[in-house]
Design brief:
The chain has about 200 residues and is an alpha/beta fold. About 50% of the residues lie in helices and about 15% in strands. The chain contains 6 helices and 5 strands. It has a 5-stranded parallel sheet, sandwiched between helices. Helix 1 crosses helix 6 and helix 5 packs parallel to helix 6. The radius of gyration is 20 Å and the shape is globular.
């Protein structure tokens, strides 16, 4: 009888803990922490879902004086202009000087963002940057950039841009954010297990 009572008690305690881990764990796993801000040589903004929020955060950091250069990275998704060029045009409209902006119009994924911005950083003598992306993408982006930039001596600070829909504590409440979370978990798992970024 004592075994049954202990089993019921364990289940009563364990089930809510397991449920909380299933619901909250993925969101907390995906969202890398934003590092404390420091002045750097550049701010790298990578396009993707919620690109406008990423752009706004990069622009805010630039205006607040955290870096003198902006690097926008991302190929075209629809239409003739790349995402990087769209962000560049927005920055120019917001008063950012053209000589403070670099663009990578080629990258089609996070690995490409890292590879092509690495070339820009090295070619322009930039040794540090703030990497701006969405909260659910920050951990994988940071792992990818760390891997691609290994041996360059270039240092990155991760920065999460406010996201319009995704929340680490409630990602499961909408079909779109559930799908996004599962896709990102799959990609993060691939990078973590294989050590490959592309």
């Amino acid at each position: 009888m004592g075994h049954v009572i202990r089993g019921i008690a364990a289940l009563a305690v364990g089930a809510p803990i397991a449920a909380a881990a299933v619901l909250f764990g993925p969101g907390f796993l995906l969202e890398g922490r934003s590092d404390p801000l420091e002045r750097t040589d550049a701010i790298v903004v990578i396009s993707g879902d919620e690109a406008l929020a990423r752009f706004r955060e990069g622009l805010r950091l630039y205006r607040d004086g955290w870096a003198p250069r902006l690097i926008f990275s991302g190929a075209a998704e629809d239409g003739p202009r790349s995402n990087a060029d769209v962000m560049r045009r927005l920055a120019l409209r917001e008063g950012v000087p053209a000589n403070a902006i670099l663009t990578d119009d080629i990258a089609e994924d996070t690995y490409g963002n890292a590879v092509h911005t690495r070339e820009l950083m090295l070619a322009n003598g930039l040794r540090s940057a703030i990497l701006v992306t969405s909260p659910y993408h920050l951990r994988r982006a940071s792992l990818t950039f760390d891997g691609v930039y290994q041996g360059t001596g270039i240092r990155f600070i991760g920065r999460s841009a406010p996201d319009g829909a995704w929340r680490k504590a409630s990602w499961w409440t909408h079909e779109e954010t559930r799908a996004l979370t599962f896709r990102e978990l799959e990609k993060l798992g691939y990078v973590t297990v294989t050590g490959r970024y592309n």
